[in-house]
Specification:
By secondary structure, the protein is of the alpha/beta class. The protein has a single domain, classed as Purple Acid Phosphatase, chain A, domain 2. It has a 6-stranded mixed sheet with strand order 1-14-2-3-4-7, with helices on one face. A 6-stranded mixed sheet has the order 8-9-10-11-13-12. Strands 5-6 form a two-stranded antiparallel ribbon. Helix 2 links the parallel strand 3 and strand 4. The longest helix has 14 residues. The chain starts with a strand and ends with a strand.
Amino acid sequence: MHNEIFYTKKDIKEFKIALLSDIHYYPNYNLNIFKSIIKQLKKNKPNYITIIGDILDNSKTTDLTNLKEFLITISKIAPIIAITGNHDEKVGAMHNWSYYKNLELIKLLNSIPNIHFLQDKTYTINNITFYGFNPSFEYYEREYESYQSFCEEIKKTNSKLTDSNYNILLFHSPINIYTYLKNNPNHNLNKSDLILSGHMHNGCLPFIIAHPLNKIFHTSRGLISPNRNLFPKYAQGRIYERDGYVYEGITKLSHSTKLFHYFDFLFRKRVEFITIKPLKKH
């Protein structure tokens, strides 16, 4: 972890966010991963925990017992703000996915007291507003995250951000949100102060390569995106053109990648922490 710091002129107290995404839970999930996450969260003591989609690897996963125990445990560390991702609404295998909405997952997220599940909703606490949105199955799997389809999806949003609060957007995929906000300066989502995403798995670049590139050259480019575009612009680390962060994910090679999944043990299961600090007034 490298603990990024973002600054704001808004009237808030300093706070810390834990970033989780791309858990890709499935039957026989390695529970040592959950133990590691819990240990990191307890050590770093975030004020809020964000889960930025792809909780499940396959949306037809029915036995959520271990996932439920994990979510209950971390919800006692800090409030959880969660959205779903593309894997949470699809079933099948690579290049052959079908839509399936797991109502048990939605029920679970809505049933644990300290979890705030956002789908085109806001949650406000201590002058901080979280807003979460995840596009449709068609956007991910039929339109391959095209910019035009994103523009259609964003019309469905009903965000009500205000200038007075510190606004944090949770978008599972970062591929189009930055371009859209730049092209649509009057959209309400432009009141965001920070954008958090996952989905990109570091653009398939190892952390040891991606992180130095990001810090030295202020670039977030990766090698390839989940929609199979080469050298995606918003793939990893800090976004410098507008305050944002693309988290590498807990799972780099999901169970749905079949044989590749067995190499996922090579990657550290790292929780990322971001601190937001108010600028000192002179």
